[in-house]
Amino acid sequence: MILSSSVFVVKLLKRLTGTISYFLLCILLLTACSVTEEVPPSTISTATLPSTHTNIPDKTSIPIIESTTTPSHTSTATVEPTPILNEGWGGRYEECLDGTWEFVKVESLDDPLPTSGWEQIEVPSQFEAISYERAWYRRGFWVDRSWEGKRLSIRFGGIKYNSTIYINGIEVGGCFNGHEPFDVDITDAVVFGTENQMLISVHDYTGLFSSPVHPSEGFSYSDIHLVENRLLSPIGTDANAMSYGVWDSVFLRVTEPVYVSDLFIQALVSESKLNIDISVTNSLVEDTQVMVTARVFPWLGEARDDANQWPLQGDPILVSEGQNLNIPGSQTKNIQISFDDPPLLLWTPFQPNLYVLEISLGKTNHDAERVRFGYREISVEGPDFYLNGQKIHLLTVAWFDNIAPDTHRIRQELLEIRTMNVNTIRTYDQQFGIYYELADEIGILMIPQIDVGNGEYTYRLRDPVFWHNYQQHILGRVERLINHPSIIMWSLSAEFYHESLRGDQAVIDQLANLAGPTREVDGTRPLVYSMDGDPGGAANVVGYHYPNEPNHFPDQRYWPAAAYWADKPVMRPLDWFYESSFTFWDSDAFFWDRNKPLYIGEQHSFDGTDPARLTLFVGDEAYLPFLHQYYPWTWYEQPLYKAKAFAFEMQILPSRQQGVSGFTMWGEFKSWSEGRTMLH
């Protein structure tokens, strides 16, 4: 039930009359967020399932810039042969290469490789610098003699920036951008039956400049946004842009020469279908024929095995008929396998049921790819989001995290967020793949944020190379994450708006043009441009940040009345920073016509540094922070967090009443180590 404006004011005033314990913070957030038209768990688990669904056990666990340099190198690391594992169908094997590597920083990557000065470093890892730093990483890895005749590749979760990969001194590839995953084929560079050497060159973000910058040009190492019209690739936020290195996991992959190179699982719940688009690549010179078969198993609730594959057990739920596929030499062919009325339980935040799909190209010792997935469908209609045909509100927080991934820590943080009735996270910047795997298991909806924003000065907006790299960044991210059921929307920008871009039709068109290639890869999820509205009508969802921001409450805003901003056009103020009300670059006013959902990707509460303002919410308790120096045992953040919870509630409830379908409280909810929930 949505509260009316008058009832809401009375409700607020009643709460302001007394002191409220800190524990009420979580209760308030639960209350504020739970005004939604979602179907209760008990209803979704039965009424929304097709009649063909069977009683599968619930598995919920709360549970390239090219280089001609060919450096010589040696590694002090000793690598033991890794035992080969062939489980189930197929001979695919993956080995994680994370762990202790070596590195050395250099003045120039064109100079001979240093013979001394190498130090140990843990991968994934990052350096902090934006001062024309360059570095080499290296490590050894064993290549078993039994792998001869197979295809070997290395999959990188992410390397910043402008990296080049060498195997035994032979250049095998790299990535100019820094935030998307990529693969390199190393088959022709390895030596079998011995240790091989991998060497990686990396740049700090200055490696993305179109031309060198001298300090006399106003370049500041402390503020990346003072570099004008130089950057040729997305770099994310300031904090993450200032780091570089091999920041995500690295895997050695061994497959047959004819292998599954791509998979896209489309859960068409509204049509009671499961479509699987499969790409098969033949790396041999001669033509070949394979038998393509699909099997679906329940996920066992277990982690990946030693070969980095999802373990299988028992009989499959679904088995397709084998389809013969003829593939010419050195080419890729596509095929689709479909299942009608699949007996699969729906994936929802209440019941995140998961399955494992295996695509086989034959029997033992032929390639087989396993992917975990959920049977769910996201759609939009008018102003609303629908999950599996049921209307849903996105109760969202935004997420920062560039710390090296730790599965236990991440799981605890996601569970903490989930228990606060938050059902969606908008990720932001440099995303580790483990977050999405855990979100799939726990039942959290995810909105991956493309790592570009604030482009007025830094990005080379008139250079087609920048827009090419921008598109490659999007596609690289989408292709790698496409089968995660937790991901329900792609965000293609983040606050690209700046004053000098207002009305710049060329830039607006370029942003709009990014939607088409993204939909060619994935047409099943809606697209949003966070804060950047709906450029060229290309989005499925209107993106907006900080509407009638209460940051200067109560000086210029009267709350909660000001929270009913969507009832009339929002005018662009003369001083947007002071007034804290954004509109888009192609208009002076914004009015939501409700033809598309409105997603508020960021919304603040208010600046609580003045205790007099906090008294409206918590009375005299607001002055506790200023007594902290005299009473050091006082938990002095308590009144501020209480007040912020009230301020968010004053925005969330009117937004729901006005039909806003997605609302993001800007910040993180942490931290277990400090024993409290933080709201930044």
Descriptive labels:
13 helices; disordered N terminus; six-stranded parallel β-sheet; disordered C terminus; alpha+beta
What does the model show?
18% of the residues lie in helices and 28% in strands. It is built from 13 helices and 36 strands. It is globular, with a radius of gyration of 26 Å. The protein starts with a helix and ends with a strand. Mean pLDDT is 79; it is low at 1-89, 573-582, 629-636 and 668-680.
- CA radius of gyration is 26 Å
Q: Which percent bin holds the helix content?
A: 10-25%
How many helices?
Answer: 13
Terminal CA distance reads: 29 Å
Unreliably modeled segments? 1-89, 573-582, 629-636, 668-680
Biggest pleated-sheet summary: 6 strands, antiparallel
* Order of strands in the sheet with most strands: 3-2-5-11-8-9
The chain-level structural class is: alpha+beta
